[in-house]
Design brief:
Blueprint lengths: L11 H78 L2 H9 L2 H7 L2 H6 L4 E5 L5 E7 L6 E3 L2 H9 L11 E7 L2 E9 L12 E7 L2 H11 L2 E6 L6 H11 L5 E4 L4 E9 L5 E10 L1 H50 L1 H10 L3 E6 L5 E4 L1 H7 L3 H5 L3 H4 L5 H13 L4 E9 L5 E12 L5 E10 L1 H89 L5 H10 L1 H33 L6 E4 L1 H11 L1 H4 L9 E5 L6 E4 H24 L18 E9 L2 E8 L6 H5 L18 H12 L3 E7 L3 E9 L11 H4 L2
Helix pairs in contact: 1-6, 1-8, 14-16, 14-21, 16-17, 17-19, 19-21
Length: 778
């Protein structure tokens, strides 16, 4: 061993070479990252070209199918028209009409119903000499039946459709002065298909916008039909040019959202006459473009991620290499090497490169393996290595000797003196001799047994912790719901006590006032009667009394005082009703579960909300339409059920206020509002089996399906911060479903209103084996 030789000191030339290598290493991650980004960009460009071409081809195939469906629908129209003209042409009555022109034939067989039934616009009969003996036309707009102009007759005769006499229907398109028409003709024969033919029967239907619209609905394809003669829109001009050059059809994108296909339609003389366009949205292409954008983002993200990972790994690897180079240089210096080697906190050993004999070990490695230094230096590396890891060690060792790698780092198992397995992180480096050939190998050992054991324990407990996390998540959701119930229950309890206290305190003075008003009214009436007697028996009072009478306006007092007492009685009765409603709503002195009248609870709630229902400067009066059914007493928690009615009615009132607050001039057209335009709340109750049904609906703003999905979640609200807690409907749902074993559902259409349906059993079945957290705190 060369522990004391100065030949191992690094030379300046070697230091400059290693510095150059380290500098080159720092540029390698940048080169790799740029290569990854270039590869990702190339892949995206090639994929875009291939996929977009594929999407365009699929899009073109779909448009070909749409054009074929449109042409098939047009062909079907010809077949139906041909069948109709054959049925009338091959008929004895028609055969006779050509000769005698019986008017009854027209009245019975060519009446208005026949025209509209077959959607015909032209009927023409001509003799074999092409002399027109009968012609009528139905106006496509007014449906009036009129005679056919000479120009239209000439156009039909010039089309050559009267020349067919083979006993079969013939059809085609004829361009008339007022537009293209689908025409079918058949020779007029007897009902037995016998001749001779007495002429030709022609029937036609305009190929106008209405017919094109009907074909569009039939094929579910947007169609447009233009005559090729004259000026055309730019896309039709381009299609006409392409189709005249020999193409059977022409497909061209209109823009990024739509694509169109064009085909020429020939007339009965096989001359191009019409240009048909079918268009459809570019759903396939847009979806493909979107997919490509996602692909590009994915490739960019993956490339960036891989580049970052490579850079981080390369930084760590470079740091390790630099650290090992520093240790190697220190070991090559004898004075520093001995101290570092002996006092190193990790295990270190030097072994012969050819025989594998351990030459030198430090104290840390002896303690790690349980050997003395003498016993350990008497062994080879293979003797202390676990047999399953030896082949891996030999492979790396051969690469190190061959110069393929400067050093290697691996995790492997070694055998302690008591044959226990020890996991270590091994770093091996080749020590060069002064001649430059390797002769020793330096190994550094870090004990990672505890980490390996911890990893095994973590893998075993991972499933356990995952299950615990799921349980905690479920428990948290239940606690949130319980918290909402407790908060709302405490609010209801406090509110009920406050309401009951206020009602009790107001009730006593109101009863005192109400009771004394009757006596006061009687006394006042006596005084008024006495004054009237004085006026009757002493019509000429003294000047002083007369002056006082005029200053006090005695006549007005005699008339107004009874009205004043009547108004005081009405106000006293109103206060008495409000106190009764407050007591009925709070039900503080009643048992939690008892049979109650649901209608009384609804009326009490409406009484408390009457101020919100009245008109003000921001919205008109809210009308409440009540449709109460014949309900028996319902066994329920009356206080909780009243709070449910309160929450639903408040939400309905706020929805109506939001809707009618949008218009600041509603009061100017208040008298013009219809039944469904004025704010309304409908309350309906009915009996369904052994369940009571309460439906509360409004014509307010409503809400979307996204809001409906979370409507009964605790703390969910659509109101502004500070305007709502998100507990009202959540607790109401728990009261109906959890506390009353009922059902609570909601339907809504945005802009039209919402409807809440409450269904509770007439007699509640108490659970025997389940007690909620809320019931423990009541």
């Amino acid at each position: 061993m060369y522990l004391g030789s100065s030949s191992f000191k690094p030379t300046p030339k070697r230091n400059r070479f290693k510095f150059k290598q380290a500098t080159q290493r720092t540029h390698l991650p940048l080169v790799i990252a740029m290569t990854l980004l270039s590869a990702a960009g190339t892949m995206f460009s090639v994929s875009s070209a291939i996929l977009l071409h594929g999407f365009e081809r699929v899009e073109a195939q779909a448009m070909h199918q749409n054009l074929e469906r449109a042409l098939d629908a047009l062909k079907q129209d010809f077949e139906i028209l041909g069948t109709t003209v054959r049925d009338y042409a091959v008929w004895d009555d028609t055969y006779a009409f050509i000769t005698n022109r019986d008017s009854d034939y027209v009245k019975l067989n060519l009446n208005q119903a026949m025209w509209e039934s077959f959607n015909l616009h032209l009927i023409l009969m001509a003799r074999p000499s092409e002399q027109v003996v009968f012609s009528q036309r139905r106006d496509p707009i007014s449906s009036d039946i009129t005679s056919v102009s000479q120009a239209v007759q000439d156009a039909v005769v010039d089309s050559g459709i009267l020349h067919h006499a083979d006993g079969k229907p013939h059809s085609g398109i004829v361009l008339l002065p007022d537009g293209p028409m689908l025409i079918a003709a058949h020779s007029v024969l007897t009902s037995n298909l016998e001749g001779p033919s007495r002429g030709t029967l022609v029937m036609g239907r305009y190929l106008d916008a209405a017919e094109v619209s009907r074909l569009s609905e039939l094929t579910r394809v947007s169609l447009d039909l233009r005559q090729i003669a004259g000026s055309l829109p730019p896309d039709f001009e381009a299609a006409r040019t392409a189709l005249f050059n020999g193409q059977s059809n022409w497909i061209q994108p209109l823009d990024s959202d739509a694509i169109a296909g064009y085909v020429l339609i020939e007339d009965i003389q096989e001359q191009p006459t019409l240009l048909l366009r079918a268009d459809m949205p570019r759903v396939i292409y847009q979806q493909g473009a979107l997919s490509l954008r996602y692909l590009g983002l994915s490739l960019l993200s993956l490339g960036t991620l891989f580049g970052l990972v490579i850079w981080l790994l390369w930084r760590r690897l470079t740091a390790n290499i630099i650290e090992r180079d520093r240790i190697e240089q220190a070991l090559l210096q004898e004075e520093r090497f001995r101290k570092v080697f002996e006092d190193a906190p990790i295990g270190m050993a030097i072994a012969n490169i050819s025989s594998g004999q351990i030459m030198k070990v430090n104290h840390a490695l002896c303690e790690m393996l349980g050997y003395t230094s003498a016993k350990l230096e008497a062994k080879t590396v293979q003797e202390i290595t676990h047999s399953d890891d030896w082949n891996q060690n030999c492979h790396l060792f051969e690469q190190l000797i061959a110069g393929a790698i400067a050093n290697y780092q691996t995790e492997k198992r070694y055998l302690k003196q008591n044959q226990e397995t020890l996991w270590v992180n091994l770093t091996a480096t080749l020590i060069h001799s002064p001649q430059g050939s390797g002769c020793y190998i330096l190994g550094m050992f870090e004990n990672v047994t505890e980490r390996k054991q911890t990893e095994a324990i973590l893998r075993q407990s991972e499933a356990k912790y995952r299950n615990q996390a799921e349980q905690l998540k479920s428990t948290l959701a239940e606690l949130q719901q319980t918290q909402a119930q407790l908060v709302q229950s405490e609010k209801i309890s406090s509110l009920s006590q406050l309401v009951a206290g206020i009602a009790h305190e107001i009730n006593n003075p109101v009863n005192f006032i109400s009771g004394n008003l009757t006596h006061a009214d009687s006394h006042i009436q006596d005084l008024l009667n006495l004054i009237r007697l004085y006026q009757k028996h002493y019509p000429q009072p003294s000047a002083e009394i007369l002056a006082k009478t005029e200053s006090a306006d005695l006549d007005f007092l005699l008339e107004d005082l009874p009205k004043l007492f009547s108004s005081m009685k009405v106000g006293s009765e109103r206060i008495h009703q409000l106190i009764l409603s407050l007591c009925n709503f709070s039900r503080l002195n009643e048992a939690d579960l008892k049979a109650v009248n649901i209608h009384a609870g609804i009326e009490s709630t409406l009484m408390l909300l009457e101020n919100r229902l009245q008109a003000n400067d921001l919205h008109p009066a809210i009308q409440v339409v009540k449709d109460y059914g014949d309900l028996p007493l319902v066994e329920c928690y009356a206080k909780q059920l009243n709070q449910v009615f309160m929450n639903i009615l408040l939400n309905a009132i706020e929805a109506l206020e939001r809707k009618w607050n949008v218009s600041e001039e509603w009061h100017l057209r208040e008298g013009q509002l219809g039944e469904w335009q004025s704010p309304k709340i409908w309350i309906q109750t009915l009996l369904k089996g052994d369940h009571a049904i309460v439906q509360i609906s409004d014509n307010g703003t409503g809400f979307s399906e996204q809001v409906k999905a979370r409507l009964f979640d605790p703390f969910f609200t659509t109101k502004a911060i500070g305007e709502g807690t998100g507990l009202g409907l959540s607790v109401s749902y728990q009261v109906i479903v959890g506390n009353h074993q009922g059902q609570m559902q909601c339907r809504s259409t945005p802009g039209q209103g919402a409807e809440f349906t409450i269904q509770i059993p007439l007699q509640r079945q108490l659970p025997q084996c389940r007690t909620s957290l809320l019931s423990r705190y009541k």
